[in-house]
Specification:
- The protein is α/β, with parallel strands linked by helices and about 450 residues long.
- Helices cover about 40% and strands about 25% of the residues.
Length: about 450
Amino acid sequence: MQTPQKIAVVGSGLVGTLLAIYLKKQGHTVHVYDRSPDIRTVEFSGRSINLVMSNRGWKAMEDVGLDDEIRKIGIPVDKRAIHLKDGKLNYQYYGKDGEAIFSLSRGVLNRRMIDLAEAEGVEFFFNHKIWDITLSDATLHIGDSERGEWTELKYDKCFGADGAFSRIRHRMQRQSMFDYSQEFMKMGYKELHIPANADGTHKIDKNSLHIWPRGNFMLMALPNLDGTFTCTLFMPFEGENSFELLKDEATLVDFFATYFPDTKEVIPDLVEDFFKNPTSYLVMMKCFPWTHTDKVALIGDSAHAIVPFYGHGMNAGFEDITILSEMISKYGDDWETVFKEYETSRKPNADAIAELSFRNFVEMSSKTADEKFLLQKKIEKWFSDKHPDKWMPLYSRVTFSLQPYSEALAIGDFQNKIMEEVMQMQNIEEKWNSEEVEQKIIALLNSK
């Protein structure tokens, strides 16, 4: 246990709330501040992408004994269900031996986490707007407006868990030698939904991540416990097949009839949802350093906002907490070393999952409808099942292992070079699971 300190966490999202539980269990006094109302008292806003919990997230939950509680509010998803334009449905299993990610509603999970944090003794202060921080002594500046009067709140330590547009990072950005970059994708997303059947069951397979891949745009659906699905339409803002063209009901209905014909029966509220819910942005953000002396640290999206196409924003943020906790166990009250080792360990891995997430949009929106790509994945799975000591597919490394993201990315690139050669073999479609292909992969692994 560390010497008890008074610690502020700015941001009551998933990462901030779980971090607060960890710090409280270390014996600290923990106050969580959020400028928004208590999420348990408001309807969710219609700009959510469902979350998927994988091994890295479960590890962080298990370490504080919350995994059983959270499993109760999730649905295991063991495969992609790929809806092709001609009506065909292809299934692509994620792992082996029933390996699955868990679909979780962001609102349901966040509410449960706050309840669990309060049960541990964490104090929450909602509708409290933090505008600035004095980095040298972790003093927060709070007030009703940015230009109005502020009150000072003094703490021993402060964690910025306040997302991609963090006020804590905003202050750190004004320091010398602080690197920062922000990039918006040229595409956005819109939340839609599939309601439950009258008896509360799901209208489509509930143990799948459903994808309608259409090149530079796609529709996605993940299941909720109540029989509904949260759907997300990802599209460019401008140009052909873009949000700017879907301005009226007739155009929207015609567009869905053309590109997503099998959704007509399952998305009855398409028009209402589309025009009611906002079109949201996707942003990638990188920065460094993440800490200031032994006083202030960034964590989760405030340090490394990524796009959602690998389902690892939450998992990467939770893994930040796992690593921070390991450093606390190792260095105790030496907070400056704790912070330095935490940011040094996490930065390359945050950059790697950012790259993987960006690439995965291309895979989900285009490649999942490509026969050659599906064959490559089939060969990888077949070879991996035969030689688990020689090959683990990239998706499994990222999702079903705790291997550092940076290593998974490097090995994934190496494996892809091998598969490029394998896919050029003559008649690969006929002999994909032959001894010849097996020996070719082994030879390439040995030679490279």
